[in-house]
Amino acid sequence: MSNAKLKIGARVALAKAGFDQLLSALQAQGYETVGPQVQGDVLAYGPISGLEDLPRGYTSQQDGGHYRLLESGHSRYFDITPGADGWKRFLFPPRSELFKLVKENGSWQPEVLEAAGTKRAFIGVRGCELAAILVQDKVFLREDFQDPIYANRRENIFIVAVDCLHPCDTCFCASMGTGPQAGPGFDLRLTELDDVFLMEAGSAAGVKLASDLNWELARQEWLEAAEAGLAAARAAMGRELPDAEAVPALLLNNLQHPRWAEVAARCLSCTSCTQVCPTCFCWDVEDSTSLDGNATERTRVWDSCFNPSFSGVAGGTIRPDTHSRYRQWLTHKMGSWVGQFDVLGCVGCGRCITWCPAGIDLTEEIAAIRATQAEVAE
């Protein structure tokens, strides 16, 4: 360890073997360490205890409606881009009990639900995923209301972000300004090189934890290699969405564009895009009562604007067809979301493209509408 004092924003080097020490330090502070691992034929997030649990040597092949893990034989641990799984489910669970009442001695008594949140350290959060967490913070931690379940879980999270040096063919985070370098919001940020991890502390908690690790000052050649890797990653994006800040006006001013009908003819309304999206937050509630009538509970469950019932009102649904539901999804995410939360609802992760069984690509749909507008302007 260097005699220098670690500060927020300083970049140091951690030997690959020191990564297990990082995990041990987190576990000693009571954190469950969760990171990427190969489960069957996909990448998923689960408990990890050391480097041996990470997907060393793997990459992923992704395209519209296509995902495949590949063993390339390289020696790095974080070259693989995310699959369908996401950090969202740890903060905004697919099912959450909102309340439960039990009848005792003729009166209803509430049961305590979602007590002190589990402390979790997210290991290997990509730039797009970190940006998505910050987007959901805007949704669930508003000034006028804070969702208690989300807030409880969020305050117990330690984030170890990892720069993404090998994007896949459906990534377009560079267009959205969310990657490949992880932006603000992390406690520690790693950049994986062949021999070391470059490490940067982004918070006081990150400084405190990393100060006791066996790090050394970063050499100039390592810093240059990291910058070259990030520049190459920006150039290797498989998709792009130019002029993203102009997209809200483009979509909201073209609600009757014929392209909506064209994409609706392909869309299955299967909800896959919204389930894998790291920022989508639609939900519904389910009420249930025990057969003996002595217990009742309400559960929050993930929902989707592609479900006909989601827009149901007395007498029917206000979005009765795929045309209106797809348009609602894209114009909300890439348009009216800005008015609600002052940020786009897309971070360029490409999950909705990869996991769409019809291979629908929102960057293509937006480009098609933009192209016709350009023709009119000419």
Question: Could you please describe the fold and organization of this structure?
Answer:
The chain has 378 residues and is α+β, with helices and mostly antiparallel strands. It folds into two domains: 11-93 and 112-235, no CATH class; 244-280 and 305-377, no CATH class. 31% of the residues lie in helices and 24% in strands. It is built from 13 helices and 16 strands. It has helices spanning 19-28, 88-91, 127-140, 148-154, 173-176, 204-210, 220-235, 247-252, 259-264, 272-276, 322-341, 351-354, 362-377, and strands at 11-15, 32-39, 42-47, 58-63, 66-71, 95-104, 107-110, 120-125, 157-162, 188-192, 196-201, 215-217, 283-289, 295-302, 312-313, 316-317. The strands form four sheets. It has an eight-stranded mixed sheet, with helices on both faces. The relative contact order is 0.16.
Helical content stands at 25-40%
Q: How many β-strand runs?
A: 16
User: C-alpha Rg, in Å?
Assistant: 22 Å
**Shape label:** globular
Write the layout of secondary structure elements.
Elements lengths: L10 E5 L3 H10 L3 E8 L2 E6 L10 E6 L2 E6 L16 H4 L3 E10 L2 E4 L9 E6 L1 H14 L7 H7 L2 E6 L10 H4 L11 E5 L3 E6 L2 H7 L4 E3 L2 H16 L11 H6 L6 H6 L7 H5 L6 E7 L5 E8 L9 E2 L2 E2 L4 H20 L9 H4 L7 H16 L1
Parallel strand pairs: 2-8, 8-9, 9-10
Antiparallel strand pairs: 1-11, 1-12, 2-3, 4-5, 6-7, 6-14, 10-11, 13-14, 15-16
